Amino acid sequence: LAALQYLDLHRNQLSSLPESFGQLAALQSLYLHENRLTSLPETFGQLAALRLLHLHENQLTSLPESLGQFAALRNLNLHNNQLTSLPESIGRLAALQYLDLHRNQLSSLPESFGQLAALQSLYLHENRLTSLPETFGQLAALRLLHLHENQLTSLPESLGQFAALRNLNLHNNQLTSLPESIGRLAALQYL
């Protein structure tokens, strides 16, 4: 299977993946959503050609540090899992444009999150976030940000650095004020 580029195993009953999964070196698109996966093998990071990864609607509680090795990854869908944290290595996903983490159990984000320079669409709604790292404002390419239905009490001043942000959803949080910098969001069309 060394030449395999597209693999669709979604809507099965998979609870684990073999360590040999990392040997699919040419794989570009991988659909593993709607299974019963609770973890991923550390060798998963060896899928260097991967551009699209759908892991939503599984039972993942954590992600391997090797996730940061996906240098070509553009689309990562992890919604509807049981993730409580993200590895620091997530910041190394330099090509990532779309990230969906909604409906997990995240209470915080790693500082490295701000390194996702190509990120355009970010879905973090329906988690347990109470704050955002100050590095969050470094997401310069961000156009869409969904943070609704969390437990946010404040937003970082760095939020005002989102020059490309068009859509910001903040409803159903515990915000008592907004940062002054929110007025600098010149491209914002929906709040």
Automatic annotation (TrEMBL):
Q: Which InterPro entries match?
A: Leu-rich_rpt, Leu-rich_rpt_typical-subtyp, LRR_dom_sf, LRR_domain-containing, LRR_R13L4/SHOC2-like
Question: Where is each Disease resistance R13L4/SHOC-2-like LRR domain found?
Answer: 66-148
The keyword Chaperone appears for this protein: no
Q: Which UniProt keywords apply?
A: Leucine-rich repeat, Repeat
Which Pfam families does this UniProt record tie to the protein? LRR_1, LRR_14, LRR_8
The keyword Amino-acid biosynthesis is assigned to this record:
no
* Name of the protein this chain belongs to: Disease resistance R13L4/SHOC-2-like LRR domain-containing protein
